[in-house]
Structure formats: structure tokens, C-alpha cells
Amino acid sequence: MLFGSNSGRVSPQDKLKKSPRLWAGFAFPGTIWLIALFALPFYAVACIAFGTIDPIFRDAVPQWNPLSWDFTQARQVLTSLATGPLRGVGLRTIVYVFCAMTLCFVVGFPIAYFLARHAGKRKMMLLVLIIVPFWVNYLMRMLAWVNLLSVDGLFTRFMRIFGINYNWLDGSPITVTLGLVYGYIPFLILPLFATLDRLDWRLIDAARDLGANSRQAFRLVTLPMSRAGLVAAGVLIALPMFGDYYTNDLLSRSPSTEMIGNQIDFFLNASSQPQNGALLVLTLSLFLLLLMSFYLRSTRQQSRQVTR
Amino acid sequence: MTAQRSTSRLALIIWGYIIWSLVPVVIAIIFSFNDGRSRTVWQGFSLRWWWQDPNLSVLQNAEMRNAIFNSLVLAVATLLIVTPLGIALAIGSQRMHGRSANFVQGLTSAPLITPEIVVGSALLITFTRLLTAVPLGFVAQLLGNVTFSLASVVVIVRARLVSIGASFEEAARDLGATRWQALRFVLFPMLWPSVMASLVVVFATVIDDFVITSFLSAGVSSETVPLRIYSSVRGGATPALNALATLLVIISFTALILGLFALSTWRKRNGERGGLRAASPM
Description:
heterodimer, A: about 300 residues, mainly alpha, MetI-like fold, 2 domains, 13 helices, 2 strands, about 0% strand, globular, B: about 280 residues
């Protein structure tokens, strides 16, 4: 942005760009690293996923030649996801993540809004308090809730006063969903705050002056102006939530609440069918890629609307 | 009037949220000082789970000490590799142009939008089937963490590069500095705040990392603190586990405070924009 090359004179940035080989040399080691340890692993996953199974040892045999990839197992896993035993896992993942996202926004948006608009003198202090969970280890925060929710935990005992006797840590979808909310909401609030803090609040005041009530001003001015930031923040927490398995493991450990991440973890780390794990990794990546492309297209459309 | 009421309702939500997000952690920290074996029923104050118990306390239990050691070594080793790699990649990818620049930038930002479990399982498959020379355990965990945190270093350093602009370097060139001298004496000193920030961010990410470190671990020998918490939290672990988790929190916050301190001293010495005084050779 800062260096939009102006026509006519040579901007400093253009001069810097004159030594392309030097800059390519700077980028070279990191690029090689990412090709070897980020791009290549995806190929390895595909080679296992579309490989064969050793008839004697029952182990997955990678097929390194893409031309002879075998898709029978892939078809089986996809059928299982659509109609078979994995269907529940897939649906559950989507439902849990959807509920957790909704709750995150319902709680997170008012907080970010207040911080950006009304916090006044206390803004800095509140911001620090909200950033603190960022620096507390995720597993520590889950450990804290395992302690509170266990059979003689403080929260369980507290709820018993009201006659609620519930086994929180034994395959409860409520606990898993709320655990996801607790785990990921800090990662939503901060980007939301960054978006709202940059808004030009004079426009909202102008809408109010022109006769909009507060709800109309919110719906017609605040929301459209911050939509891109809202979606970006949502994507930021949706991606890790879809791949989460440890929240589930720590707070439930029951097959009745398993998500797709749990299945990937199981197939790759605890079973002798890594091929299924590889196939689920590919399915999850494709699903998320699809979500991302929707997101990119919606932001692009929106920026087109704005420029018009 | 109504505006005021809705504002105080918002204030209520924010304070409620802060309490909800922090109190469970505070309670877990308090229970590390419990006198009994329970992590849920308070039996009086003691330091037995921190260091008094000769076998089970966090500072004397061999396995827990091993986990702390592994975590610190992994974090520091990752920093040593990822910092130079990330700075170079940020500078290079920002100044390249054309199709190769698009490729490098796409490749650099792809890990940011990939869930950890995908990176972790892809690397597990790679190290067990393709690059079998890499043994699971410390080396694999190191490679995995560098790969996953490289993107954040690039993002942080590139933001600083954009705000510095190119004019300082060009001024140095006009005054007779070679390209390397301009980089060495002008650009690198001005990058320091972003290097500091990425050191802190990467350290905290790696020391807290669970998924990649777990997928690429090789049993107890490469167990880190998060792995230890994960494997024992649902068993009958003693409050020493709370103490171990508390220790991890203390380490993260120490890194954060050191980073902020270094940043503010740097600012005091060089001014907000890190002007030319930073660039003058010592």
C-alpha cells in the first residue's frame, strides 16, 4: 500500500526491486523448507490414502505414482461418511462447531463492541484482562475445567445446590461444545475488537442524526462495515475447531461425542489403518478449502460492492 | 437513558466474561497448593506438590522435570532455526515480484489457514514413510514446530518491513553504502522490534503446542509439558499436575514480560519509529 509505484518517477521500492536475484536468494531457504515439510507431506498423505494395503501385514503401502492411484478405499470412506458409521462423526463435527461458533459470536461480539466503543478510560485494563487467556496454555485451561466438572469438583457441587446432578465429563455434548467455546473464544474477540476499533464511528453517529434508531444504525451501518472482519475472525476459529480432538478427549472421552479429529487421531496413532486416517485428513482439508473459497468469494464480492 | 442502560448491560457481559475466562484457571493454580491428594477438594495449604515431596512434587519428580526440560529445549531450538529463516523469507518474499513471488507468498501463508491436525498428521506420515531418515521424537518435533511457526514470523516481520519503507535503505545507498551495508546497518537494526515480537510469539506457541508435538513424539523420551498434562489429566493425578501446568503459565508470562521489557527499552533508546540512531554503527 505504502509503495504504490507512482508513474513517472522511480520510487525507492522500484529501485529495491532491481536486484531480484538477491531477494530470491533471501526467500530461497524458507521456500525450500516449506516445499519439503509442508507441500510434500500433502503428497505423502495422498500416496497413503490412494495406495494399497499389504495383503500379509495388513499395513498401508504408499503408491508414489499418481497414475496408478487406487480409489477403492477412498470410495468406501466417503460412503461411510455419507451413509455409514462415520456419518454420525461428520454430522456431529459440523453441529458442534456450528453451535460453538454461534455462541462465540453471541458472547464475543458484545464484548468486542463494548471494548471498542464504550470502554473509555478502562479500555487498556480490560484489553489486558482479555488478552491474558491467550498466554495461558490451552491444556491448562482445559485442566482447570476438568477439575471443576469432575464428580466432586467445585462446579458439580455448586450445581447440586440447585438440584442439578449431572455427569459433566461422561460424554456430554453440552460440555464438549462449551469447552470449544471456552477454548477458542479469545481468538475471536481480539480480531473482532481490531475490526470494530478501526470503524469510523462518526458514520454511525451520522446515521443516528439522520433519524435511524440504534437498532437500524447497527443493522444498516455497523454490521455492513464490519462484515469482512467478522467473517475473517470466524474463519480464524472455525479452522482449528474443525480439526480439534483434544478438547473432546479431555472433556468427554466417549465415542458418543467423537469428532472427525478424534477419528484421524485414532486411525493414525492407535490403529493399524493409517490409510483411513490419511483419507480423513484429505477429506477434512478439502472441506475446509471449500469453506475458505466461499469466504474469499464473499469478501471479494463485498469489496466490489463497496467500490461500486 | 436507554443507551446508558444498554452500555451498562454490555459492561456486565464483559466483566462476566473476564471472570468466566480467568477464575477456573486461578482455581486450578490455587489447588496446586492443596495439602491433600485431591485436585478438587481443598484440604489446607502446603508446598508439598511444588517441591517438598521428594518423589511426587513437580520440581523433584524425574518425569515432570524431564517434561519441563524437553519443552524448554524444543522451544529454544525452534527459535534458533525459525527466526533467521523467517526474517529472510519475509524480506525476500516482500521484495520479489512476478509469478514466483505469488508462489512464495501463497506457500508462506498456507500454513496459517491449515489446522494443526492436518500439518501434524501429514508430517507423521512423511517421517514414517517418505523421509524415514528423520526419527520421531525431538528432531521430528523440531522440524514440525519450525514449519508451523514460520508463517507467524513472516507475518510479523513483513508488517514491520512495510512500515519502515524503502527510503532509509535508499538514503544509505545514495551515501555510498553497498547493498549489504545498507541491509546490515540500516534495515536489520530497524527490524529489531518485530524480531523481538516474533521471538516471544513463537516461544509461547511452541511451549504451548500440543497437536504437532504429540503426533511427532516418540514416547516418554520426547514428552513435553502439554503432552504430560494431556496424558494424566483424566487419571488420578495429584495436584502436582496443577503445579506443572502453573509452571508452564509462569514460563509463558515470563517470556511475554521479558519481550515487552526489551521492546520498551529499545523504544526508549531509539524512539517510536526506530529512527536513524538505531542505524548508526556502534
